[in-house]
Each structure stands twice: as C-alpha cells, then as structure tokens.
Design goal:
The complex is a heterodimer of chains A (433) and B (320). Chain A has 433 residues and is an alpha/beta fold. Chain A contains 18 helices and eleven strands. The termini of chain A are far apart. In chain B, helix 3 crosses helix 14, helix 6 crosses helix 8 and helix 11 packs antiparallel against helix 14. Classes of the chains: A alpha/beta (433), B mainly alpha (320). Chain A: This is Sugar ABC transporter substrate-binding protein.
C-alpha cells in the first residue's frame, strides 16, 4: 500500500488532534480520570498554631494527591499580612494563593486583583457551601475565592458572676435566645449586682471587628447597603434602633468606657480579667480560654430582635489574578474545601465550616466540644443578604466610616440622628469613590 | 580658562610652543587634584547611591502619587492638586496636625530638660552612677512597639497597674483609654520614658567635654549651684541642645509606633497624629494618593523647621 506524504500527514493529524484536545482540557471533565497537575504554588497566610498545623497537613495531602505539585507555605504575622500582600500585588510578585477575611475580600475582588474562578471551578461547585458562605466570595455575581471557614460571635459568660446576679436561665437553643428586651433585663440585673469597676459585658467591635456592630443592625432586620450594594440603606428604623440600643450600653455603664470601637483593649481581655461578666467572642477563642481561664464559663446564643443575626467572620482562600498556575491554584482551592480538609481544619482550630453538609452534620471542636452546636447554630442566623453586603468592594472605606461615627456615638455623646446621618453620608461617599 | 591664557602667554611667537618650566608640577598637581576628586566621588558614591535609591526616588514617587486618585492597586488617575485641596476641608487632618504640633511642643522641651537634669546628676560624683546611667539608657534598647505594649499594660483603665495604685492610695482612677486628655497624656508619658535616656546620653557626652575649670572659676567668683548650671552648663552644652532639638522634633513629627499600639489614634481621634492618619488612609481605606499628600505635607513641615533651625544654628555658631 502506497502512503503518500500528504496522506501520512492527514492520518497523523487525525490521530493527534484528540490527544492535543485532551491535553488542552485542563480540568478533568465528568467521567474521566483526573489529570495529575504539576507545578509549584506559593501560599501566604497568617494563622494560629493550630491553623498553621491544619494548613500544613492539608498541603501534604494535596501534594500526595497531585504528584509533582508543591505548595510553598509562607506564614506571616497578621499585622504584616495585608501591607505585604498589597505591596506584592502592586509589584507584580504576589503569591498564587492567599487567605483573606470576608470583609477585606471585596477590596481585592472589586479591583481586579483576584482570579475569576467561574471558568475553572467544576460545575455544581457552589452547591457544597451554605448560601451565605458562597455569597461572601462573589463579586459582580462571579466567584473570586472559596469560603474556607467562618466564625461568628456568641456570648461567652462567667458562670459565677451571672449566678450571683440571679441570672440562671441561660438560653440553650437558638429559638430561646434572649430578645433585646430580655437581654436588657439581664444587663440591668448584672449592673445592679456588680461593683462599679466591673461591668455586665464587653463587645468585640474593636478595630476591624467594627463589622460586628452590624449584627445588631441585622437583628433589627436592617441593611447598611441597599440591594444594589452601592446606595446607603442605614437611614432606617432598624438603623436607628441599632445605634440607639448599642449607644445605651455606654450610657448605662453596661460596658466599660474603653470598650469602644477604637479602643486598643480587646473585649476578650476585659472578660478574661473578669472585669466583665460576659463578652462576645468567636470559636477561635476556645483553645486559649479553655487552657488559661481559671473560672467556670459557658457560651450561649447572641440576642435576637426582629430576627436572629450575627457576623459572618472567618476567611476565604483566593488565587491572585496574576498566578501563572490558574488550574493548579483552583485545584488547591477545591481541595481545601473538600469535606475531610474542612472538617479536620475546623475541628482542630475551633472554626466553623462553610460546607452545607458539615453544617448539617455538625463538627466537634477539639476544645470544649459541647459548645460546638452553639457556634454552628449562631452562624446559621447569618443570611446571604448580610454576608453579600460585607463583600462590597467599598468595605474597607465603610469600615473607617463605621469606626469614626460609632466612636463619636458611643463615647463622644453624638446623637443617634447625627450618627445615622454621618453613617449614611459616609457610606454614600465610600461607595461613590 | 585662566590656565590656558597663562600657557599661551608663555609660548614664544612664531615657533613651537615652549614647554613652560613649571608645567610639570602643575600637570602633576592637576592630576593629583583630579585623583582626589575621583577618590572623593568614589567614597561619596555609595552614600549618594543609597540616598538616591532609598530616599530621593521614593520621595519623588510619593509626590507623584499625591497627585493621583488611587485605590491601592494598579496605576492611579492624575487629579492635579485635588488631594491637597481636600486637606483644607478635612477636619481630621487638622486635628492630627494640631495633635502632632502639641505632641512636639510637649515632648521636645520636656525630654531635653529631663535629659539634661539627669545627665547633670549622673555627671557628678553620684555613687553607683554607672548603674543609674544604664537604667536610664535601657529603654533606648527596647523597640517602640514593645515599649507601647508595656504602656498598654500600665495604662489599661480596667486592669492597669497605674489605676490600681491610684485606687489603693484612695485617689480616683483616671480614664487613660477613654478620656481624651488622659489618653494624650499617657502617650506623652510613655514617649518620655522611652526618649529621656537618649537625651541624657547626648547631654552626658556634652557635659564631659566641658572644662571643669570653668565651674571652679565660677565657684571662686561666688556663683551658686543654680547659677553655675544656668550660666555655664546650659550654654556649654549648646551644640548638644541643637542636635537634640532637631532629633526630637523630627522624631515627634514622625511618631507612630507608640501611638499606633497604645491608642490607635483614639479615643475620638484625641491622639491621632499625621503619621497614624496617613497610615490609616493609605493602608486601611487604601486611599494612597491622599495618604501620600499627607506625607508630603509632613515633609514640608519638617523641611521648614529644619531650615529655620539651620539659620538659628549659624547664628549660634557665630555667638560661640
């Protein structure tokens, strides 16, 4: 049989095209065996000892599952994390992956610094997360990261101090959480029983934690951004109720004066020193509290008003827009949010999962495991509309507005009306720029 | 030019220019001068290079960014003087400027006065003065952040040691963290604790260069201790005072770490200074163009102060 050169090339082409297409396919499609991915990723994060240990374990598992791939972990102090990341992004040598709080996520996603994962994530990927978690990593309705874990604040209380004030009925289910009115009664009882230099509670809204003030707004069924996520919506009955109620904490001496939003003293430290009977705190405090506190303490749900509400704390994992390995980076993000990876990480580090199946089945913290349902239950009060507002690209500027205005309201004697006006004007200016 | 004229005048008319007799030594002197110039430049070049790279280039960059609207990433948009115009109507900028000026006006003279007083004491025949000198100097060896953390422990108004001592003594506690004046005082006190050692050290070096005969002569003339201190010690440490004045003012203009850690600029911006405000604007709200404009204003203030001091110093040199 004569084979002409022309026929040979046609035949060779016909054979090689499927192979070439297969090579270009990148992510494995349904029904085919996953293509081993190779390459090196750099991953910058901060973390507690248990968080870093969790990351190292997950990275080792990822490298084993993807022979030829390596992930270089760069652990930095939180204080340096974002000045470094910003400088690296500006200089064009940012890591492939980094960890970012949800309230900072929008600043990067809204400024084209993160990898749009729409094309590289497998179909149905979003189904693994709770709606509020998935909403927290969206920008312009596109995913720019994965919700790695969450955390939220519940009430941590000093059992002896509450008992001595006659507060013995502590809510044990989300449905029985104190209403604002009931919480007011508890605070008044505590105020009456405690000496002047001790206080009913301390609230954890210091520094960038000022976003936790929004929990009161959400409990009053309010919003700070309208549905377009640009117009201010805080000038409302709910906004006024939230400012009024939280301002009264200082006027009625329910919190120490140095518990304001710009204070450098954290609420947890005030509670640790038994200066306050209660504090709001995330699950991340459990390991420290369990090992260091020498008084008996428990946890209960945050108060509710029109509805329950809480802060959507925690962090996302994101890939940078300039990564040279978008597929490997996406595969890593996928791996880190798989059931085992997330369960191991959250249980060891006392953090809450963002996967719907883990929220459903529950997890068990390594420290104070009996408190796990309180935190998971509290996290369920966060609505997707709440976390979506916090993911605004203007959030970093809105945080400054919240800090300035609430500080004036809490310890500067600024009226509720003036505070609402300041917040509304400030948010409008922040979203306009 | 002069040299060429001289050479031409030395050449006989109509013939080959005669080699002037003194041209050999002149050429070698010129060569030596050139060599010295090159050596000088060579010695200077590392400093100039570093200065250019790490001071001048960023400075030009900061001025350039201050003329732009930025969001922290990518290239900014040129907006001319808008950021500077915005400063005029920014209440927090003026509050921070006034706080910076007040901080400078308190910390500079007080730290110098305390430094001189302690140096005068430790320059005398005090027993164990080496130990005392070390105690005063030790804060210098501690980082500003660590110093501020110690300050937080001392001035915490709920569980700090200072308020506990006040209470123990039957005195009312002071709202170091929520009272505006008290918070400002707390950062001044911690700064003084940190800075007095440096002032003392410089003054001590200055005092040890003062001729003891001057004091002896004054004593023989009937001058008492205060008069000797006022009319001999203080004038004779003039160069040290000038150096410390410049250093303290520049430090005070640039104060950051102690305030950032102790008060974060609060309460109600009572301790916000220009650098903490620029930091918040640049790295928290990511308005880096505006933050750069604040930085440039700070630079201009420092330059203006240095220029004034420069003129005063020349006068002082003449007097001395």
């Amino acid at each position: 049989m004569d084979i002409s050169r022309r026929n040979f090339f046609v035949a060779a082409g016909a054979v090689s095209i499927p192979l070439l297409l297969a090579g270009c396919a990148g992510f494995s499609t349904a029904g085919t065996k996953p293509t081993p991915r190779k390459g090196t990723l750099t991953f910058t994060t901060w973390g507690t000892d248990s968080e870093l240990a969790g990351f190292k374990t997950a990275i080792a598992r990822f490298e084993k599952a993807n022979p030829g791939s390596t992930v270089t972990l760069n652990a930095v102090p939180y204080e340096q994390m974002f000045t470094n990341i910003d400088a690296q992004l500006q200089a064009g040598n940012a890591p492939d992956i980094f960890r970012v709080p949800y309230y900072t996520f929008g600043s990067y996603a809204g400024r084209s610094q993160l990898l749009d994962l729409t094309a590289t994530l497998p179909s149905g990927f979003s189904d693994r997360f709770t709606p509020q978690a998935w909403r927290a990593v969206q920008n312009a309705d596109k995913p720019f990261g994965v919700p790695h874990h969450t955390d939220t604040s519940v009430i941590l209380y000093n059992k002896a101090l509450l008992a001595s004030a006659g507060v013995t009925a502590i809510p044990t289910t989300l449905e029985k959480a104190w209403t604002w009115k009931e919480f007011e009664g508890v605070s008044e009882k505590l105020r009456a029983s405690l000496p002047d230099d001790k206080f009913p509670f301390a609230y954890n809204w210091q520094g960038n934690g000022v976003t936790r003030w929004l929990s009161w707004l959400f409990q009053a069924d309010g919003r700070f951004l309208a549905k377009d996520l640009t117009s201010p919506a805080i000038d409302s009955k709910a906004g006024r109720a939230a400012v009024d109620f939280t301002k009264s904490f200082f006027d009625k001496k329910w919190v120490p004066q140095n518990d304001s939003v710009k204070s450098t003293t954290y609420a947890s430290d005030i509670w640790y020193s038994q200066t306050a009977a209660m504090t709001w705190g995330g699950a991340f405090l459990l390991p420290d509290a369990a090992s260091t506190l020498d008084f008996e303490w428990g946890a209960t749900f945050a108060p509710r008003n029109v509805r329950g509400g809480s802060d959507f704390g925690g962090n996302a994992l994101v890939a940078t827009a300039g990564t040279k390995q978008p597929e490997l980076a996406t595969a890593f993000l996928d791996f880190m949010t798989q059931e085992k990876s997330m369960r191991d990480f959250c249980e060891a580090a006392s953090l809450l999962p963002t996967r719907a199946d883990l929220v459903e089945s529950g997890i068990t913290f390594a420290q104070r495991p009996e408190l796990s349902p309180v935190f998971i239950g509290q996290a369920s009060t966060v609505q997707a509309a709440d976390s979506g507002q916090v993911a605004s690209p203007s959030m970093s500027k809105i945080i400054t507005v919240l800090k300035d205005q609430l500080e004036q309201a809490f310890i500067g004697g600024q009226s509720t009306d003036a505070t609402i006006k300041g917040l509304s004007d400030g948010i409008a200016a922040a979203t306009a720029s | 030019m002069t040299l060429r004229v001289e050479e031409r005048s030395a050449a006989p008319a109509g013939g080959e220019p005669a080699r002037p007799r003194e041209s050999g030594p002149r050429r070698s002197r010129r060569r030596r001068n050139l060599g010295e110039t090159l050596a000088g430049l060579a010695f200077l070049s590392p400093n100039m290079l570093l200065l250019g790279l790490f001071v001048l280039v960023p400075l030009v960059g900061a001025v350039s960014i201050s003329l732009q609207a930025t969001n922290g990433f990518g290239s900014g948009r040129f907006i001319g003087w808008d950021n500077y115009v915005r400063l005029f109507s920014d209440g927090l900028f003026w509050r921070s400027t006034l706080n910076t000026a007040l901080f400078t006006l308190i910390v500079t003279p007080v730290s110098m006065a305390m430094g001189l007083g302690i140096a005068a004491l430790l320059n005398s025949v005090l027993p164990a003065r080496g130990v005392f000198r070390s105690i005063v100097i030790v804060p210098m060896a501690i980082s500003g952040v660590a110093t501020a953390l110690i300050g937080v422990l001392i001035f915490d108004q709920n569980s700090g040691i200072l308020d506990k001592m006040l209470k123990f003594a039957g005195l009312p506690s002071i709202p170091w963290q929520s009272g505006q004046g008290a918070a400002f005082a707390s950062v001044v006190i911690v700064t003084l604790w940190w800075r007095v050692g440096f002032n003392m050290l410089i003054y001590l070096a200055g005092l040890q260069g003062v001729n003891p005969g001057l004091h002896e002569a004054a004593r023989l003339d009937g001058a008492n201790g205060w008069q000797r201190f006022r009319y001999i010690t203080v004038p004779m440490v003039g160069p040290s005072s000038f150096f410390l004045l410049i250093m303290n003012v520049i430090y005070s203009f640039q104060v950051f770490d102690i305030i950032f850690v102790m008060t974060g600029g609060g309460p109600q911006n009572a301790t916000s200074v220009l650098v903490t405000y620029a930091y918040d604007t640049g790295f928290v709200t990511r308005d880096q163009g505006y933050a750069a404009a604040i930085g440039v204003v700070l630079l201009l203030l420092t330059l203006a102060f240095t220029a004034i001091q420069w003129r005063i110093s020349r006068t002082r040199d003449q007097v001395e």
